[in-house]
Amino acid sequence: MNHRVVIKKRKADHGGAEEDASEQPDPDLISNLPDCVLGTIVSLLGAEDGARTAALARRWRHVWRDAAPLNLDDPLPNVADDDLRVQRISQILSAHPGPTRRVAFRSLRLGLNVLHYDAWFRLPLLDAIQELVLCFRVDVGYPRLPVSALRFAAALRVLDVRHCRFPAASSGVSPAFPCLTDLSLCEVVVDAELLEGIFSNSPGIDTMKLLNSFGHRRLRVSNLPRLRRLAVAVKRCFNLSLRKEEEIELNDLVVEDAVSLEQLVLDQIDQGPSVDITGATKLKVLGYLQTGFPVFDHGNLVFNKGTLPVSPGKQLSTVRTLALDVAKLNLKQVVDFLSYFPSIEKLHIKIESQWMSMESTGVFYAPVTPIECLDRSLKIIELQPYNGYVSHAEFAKFFIQRAKVLELMKFGGCGGHSPRWVQQQRTQFSECKASRCAQFSFGHEIESPNWMEDCFTGDDPFSKK
């Protein structure tokens, strides 16, 4: 009997030991990392969150101040007073000895605070900055950016500038960013000489966005052997505070020796510019092309406004994703475009005018020769906005009846329609599909006016997330 008691006691003791061990906290392996690694981790946080890590444990108290590169982003949504914003930013910059990984200025107007910006840009703390975002609030006259903002040549990898005027090329400034990989300019005034100088002195640029900027009529992009992604948008400048010579818009874009270019994204180019591109043998993503855009020249293929190239046998066989912007549903023109892109797997069609799209031109068009991409490669089609007009439905049916490997046809901008309407649309398309695998989806998403700002966050710039 005693023997039994002893066995029970041991089991109880053993179980208790396991329970005690399970309640012990896991070892803090992160805190055992070197200061330089902890500093890198903390630098990925914002300034406020990075500072809070000092409260985690004694081991972390000095990391943000002494080892972590500064990551400052200043939206300051709850601060209404500019003077208080300046005070907060200055306090953060003075409290951190450096170095700095990333700074994003967003909340302060440039014109009223140019002296503060100039003083901050000159701080040794920013000497080795890697990412600089200058997203100024829209201000009258596009205030001029201080020259000190362009001094960061040592380690700068990302430069994003919006709503300002660059220093004139005559000022003697010659920006050079040998480590730059990502350049984004949105609504900035910059002359061609200065901008082309940035291109020449930044050979490592991988991604570039030139969105609605002006001050240059002709732009030549060259000496960028690593450029993989390029986005260009142009819109009419209505800012009456600009001098006449600064209202110059981009009319001609020349991209030379684009040996690495994979994605070329264009928008609002029906009023300019013409696009001349050479050497883009790796081009996979292209659009928006318009049935009324001025000129798109790719080697020996020249698409002129209102016409298509007469180049038998010439095709852009590397393109896998194509986006077309059509003023009205002219099926023949769209089909003629497709004949030059035999290998596309995704096709995006944006209808520019709702009222014009109620009319149709040739929706019952029957091409004489086969369309190669419909026979063997086209898997995804997106049509937006789709409202179920007869012209819309017949236009969609043309592709559904002929795309033999179609997997998905997406209809965007269908908000306001009932589930019954959606089912009726799905039924009529299911009855005529050439691909057994074809599915149909109807979504409410419409394209954001600022979609190009984030167009390179995924593989397909035109896809509605």
What's the helix count?
12
Shape: globular
- Terminal CA distance reads 72 Å
Task: Compute the CA-based radius of gyration.
Answer: 29 Å
Low-confidence stretches: 1-19, 355-359
Beta content: 15-25%
Class derived from helix and strand content: alpha/beta
Q: How much helicity do the residues have?
A: 10-25%
> Numbering strands along the chain, what is their spatial order in the largest sheet?
1-2-3-4-5-6-8-10-12-15-17-19-20-21
Give the averaged pLDDT, no decimals: 81
For the largest beta-sheet, the strand count, sense and barrel status come to: 14 strands, parallel
Strand element count:
21
Domain FBD: 368-411
InterPro entries: F-box-like_dom_sf, F-box_AtFBL13-like, F-box_dom-containing, FBD, LRR_dom_sf, LRR_FXL15/At3g58940/PEG3-like
Biased composition (Basic residues): 1-12
Domain F-box/LRR-repeat protein 15/At3g58940/PEG3-like LRR: 118-349
List its traits:
five-stranded mixed β-sheet, FBD, 12 helices, globular, LRR_FXL15/At3g58940/PEG3-like, F-box_AtFBL13-like, alpha/beta, disordered N terminus, 465 residues
Plain-language structure description:
The structure is a single chain. The protein has helices spanning 2-23, 35-43, 47-52, 63-67, 82-95, 114-121, 192-200, 331-338, 354-357, 372-376, 390-400, 419-430; strands at residues 70-73, 100-105, 131-135, 158-165, 182-189, 207-211, 218-221, 229-233, 252-255, 263-267, 274-277, 285-290, 295-298, 301-304, 321-326, 329-330, 346-351, 360-361, 380-384, 408-411, 439-442. It contains twelve helices and 21 strands. It is globular, with a radius of gyration of 29 Å. It is an alpha/beta fold and 465 residues long. It has a 14-stranded parallel beta sheet, with helices on one face. It has a five-stranded mixed beta sheet with strand order 7-9-11-13-14.
